[in-house]
Amino acid sequence: AVVPSVTTTACRHAELPAAFVPRSNDRCRLVPADPERWPAGVRHYRDLLALPGEVLKAERRTRIVRTEPQAGEPVLVVKVYRYGWLTGWRASAVLPKAEREYRALERLRALGLPAVEPVGFGLARTRTGRLRSCAVVTRHVPGHEPLRQWRKRVPDDERSRQRLAAIATRVGALLRRCHDERFYLLTPNAKNVLLEREPATDDDQDRVLLLDLPYARTLRFGLARRWAQARDLAQLCSSLPERDWPLALEALLAGYGMQEDEPERERLEQRVMRHVLVLRNRTPLSRGVHRLKRSVRHAVRRRRARSRRETT
After folding, report:
1. Nearest Cα to Cα of residue 252 among 188, 136, 170
2. Residues 78-122: pLDDT tens digits?
3. Alpha carbon separation from 247 to 170, 242, 310 (Å, rounded)
4. Per-residue confidence (pLDDT) for residue 254, from 0 to 100
5. b/e map of 38-57 (b: 16 or more CB within 10 Å)?
6. How many CA atoms lie within 13 A of 134 on its CB side?
7. Where are the alpha helices (DSSP H) in 117-192?
8. Cα–chain-centroid distance for residue 269?
9. What confidence score (pLDDT) does residue 258 get?
10. Contact 96/123 with Cβ under 8 angstroms?
């Protein structure tokens, strides 16, 4: 469906970091999923960035804010991505990250899969077309926490391992539904799986919600689909503590519909474990590449810190 867009012209917010504030001559765009359910008073992209609330995450290029509850309006989560000069030009050739995440959540909900509700997105471009920043808005889900946060919080006992196996089985079934539609998440993570902090009873099934999927896409070619299939399962498995890998992989494959006596299960399990070792830098090549990238990153940070000291 075609959703209306609003071109911005206005204001800034004192609490917003200057790096995230669009310039006065930037071309901004705001796209609500449903204008009737859009927060009152948010008519411009800068108004969206200026919504007051609790900062959940504040990094150099990412900022996540949970808005303050307003009378008769839902609590929202606003995630803002900021682009540098080079990354902004590179991102200008493709869909903005916020729009891709918005479309992925809409696709999941259209397939009947549990995902957080997307509310809209916005973006700001310079006059030359370079992407400066973009933001995706979702509805806040109270009473839930990320799977990885829950795993770190609870003790490593038999009850928590049984619940982890049940959660992984449900997530494996969700992945199978996605893959049957040729839709692959590519960067699923235990941080991006929400579950209830405390289920009502031990017999209740955990309600699982997916979020933060800016790289999800449809793949049609066989080799790409085989790679993405193993990648999705490996990303979820490797994002958990290493002690949980065998249990999580077995439960994921069980939920995925792979029986233990199937020959395809053994081949898929081998491909998943190869991806896990690469993702966790356990192979000689990936370990060397990781060390090189880390050395370059530290050298760049030291150079920037030295230049800042010299300028001050």
Report:
1. 170
2. 999 999 889 899 888 889 999 999 999 999 999 999 999 999 999
3. 14, 10, 52
4. 92
5. bbeebebbbbbbbbebeeee
6. 23
7. 147-153, 158-180
8. 25
9. 80
10. yes
Residue 71, both tokens: 């009378």
Q: Which of 63, 61, 81 is nearest to 15 (CA)?
A: 63
Task: For residue 58, give the nearest of 90, 100, 109, 20 by alpha carbon.
Answer: 20
Read off φ and ψ for residue 181, nearest 5 degrees: -90, 10
Locus of tokens 């990885």: 148
Residue 201, pLDDT score: 53
For 206-232, the pLDDT digits (tens) are 789 999 999 999 998 989 999 999 999
- What token pair was written down for 285? 């090549």
Nearest to 122 by CA among 10, 3, 213, 31: 31
Tell me how far apart the alpha carbons of residues 63 and 141 are, in angstroms, rounded to a whole number.
18
Asked whether the beta carbons of 186 and 228 are under 8 A apart, the reply is yes
Structure tokens at 232: 């999705």
Position 288 scores a pLDDT of 82
Q: Which two tokens stand for residue 34?
A: 């449903």
Rounded to the nearest angstrom, the gap between the alpha carbon of residue 150 and the centroid of all alpha carbons in its chain is 17
